[in-house]
Write a structure and sequence with these properties.
Elements (H helix, E strand, L loop, with lengths): L1 H7 L1 H7 L3 H11 L5 H27 L1
Helix pairs in contact: 1-2, 1-4, 2-3, 2-4, 3-4
């Protein structure tokens, strides 16, 4: 679900993963049509980093 949000509404993804300032910067980038693609790529990258951080956090709690 978050991947779809990252592609169509990149700025919203940053708010869902707890990075509101990055979400505002992404929204400014996303306002231009040319900036939409870099904003979507940035959101997908941030989502992958968030998922990795969550897996690491879960592994540490499992120890």
């Amino acid at each position: 679900m978050r991947l779809i949000i990252a592609i169509f509404l990149p700025f919203l993804l940053f708010f869902t993963i707890g990075r509101p300032i990055a979400g505002i910067v992404c929204l400014i980038l996303q306002i231009t049509l040319i900036g939409w693609i870099p904003a979507a790529l940035w959101a997908i990258y941030a989502l992958s980093q968030y998922n990795t951080d969550e897996k690491i956090r879960a592994a540490k709690l499992g120890d």
